[in-house]
Amino acid sequence: MRGRAVGTAPAPLSILDLATIGAGHSAGEALAATTELARSAERWGFHRFWVAEHHGMPGVASSAPAVLLAHLGAHTSTLRLGSGGVMLPNHAPLTVAEQFGLLEALHPGRIDLGLGRAPGTDQATARALRRGLADGAEDFPRQLAELTHFLDGDFPTSHPYARLVAVPRSATRPPIWLLGSSGFSAQLSARLGLPFAFAHHFSAANTVPALDLYRDNFRPSEVLSEPYALIGVNAVAAETTERALWLARSAALGMLRLRLGRPGPIPTPEEAAARTYTSAEEDFVDSWLADVVLGTPEEVVDGLEALRKRTGADELMVTSHIHGHQNRLTSYGMIAEAYGLTG
Description:
Elements: E1 13-17, H1 27-44, E2 48-51, H2 65-74, E3 80-87, H3 93-106, E4 111-116, H4 123-130, H5 140-152, E5 176-180, H6 183-192, E6 196-198, H7 207-216, E7 229-237, H8 241-259, H9 269-274, H10 279-290, E8 293-295, H11 297-311, E9 315-319, H12 325-339
Parallel strand pairs: 1-2, 1-9, 2-3, 3-4, 4-5, 5-6, 6-7, 7-8, 7-9
Helix pairs in contact: 1-12, 2-3, 3-5, 6-7, 8-10, 11-12
């Protein structure tokens, strides 16, 4: 493992949000909660606030990141906002260039464009989004190159799109990040000299190998002179370790239902505690919870620092997909205070 030297200042701390819809709540309530969380994150001093694209998931309201980011930008003033990410195979590159050019024009200097190559949904929904799967994840490098040319307005003169213009286009464009949960995007980020965000929160076993691939193969570029790696981390803080675990089990049950092909709103902690699990389901829940940094605020900060040292991550992005807006708000606020964020 190679990366940030042990003993340096704490890594920047950010938030990944999915506009979580809990059982008994509506999408409108979830989006209002995300708006309040973004305002709070700005006040507490989190570095950036990203939202993720998912489709066909009753527990996630962030299906259109560009729309949600425009709204969040209007309700904040300094917080960096971005997509974590836009699933590029679901969209025409010109559409993404226009959307994020517009966001940059609305909120200059505050927008990040994080891109993923997974569909963020099942294959049937992916077909409905794309009207076919001809341009899937395998075509991601070409789509990325096309998007970059649209953002920069620099297609070669021989290219069929050379005369097309993505409007609006600012003098500066949003930084492009590549997201991934395996080695593919790590190597592509390295080759292009882009910052890399790894989904440790659902692919923990691959984190260190992917980050090593990224750093070992990194080529300096106009946008980045040395590697910069961010990792997403499931984190839950509460007054006691027992309560943090109780809250986290609601997210674990939500993930279990997703794996079983029965996605729904995030269940309540009471429902998760009362459910009877098979031995295989218990194994899944225990395995998932093992990668969650949870406990009292001090325990969470210690866990985050241990993870930073182990991975060498330059930035940590915490996410909490638990039930109840107040539970999430309290958890993030506790983490911010214990981590030493100053607003």
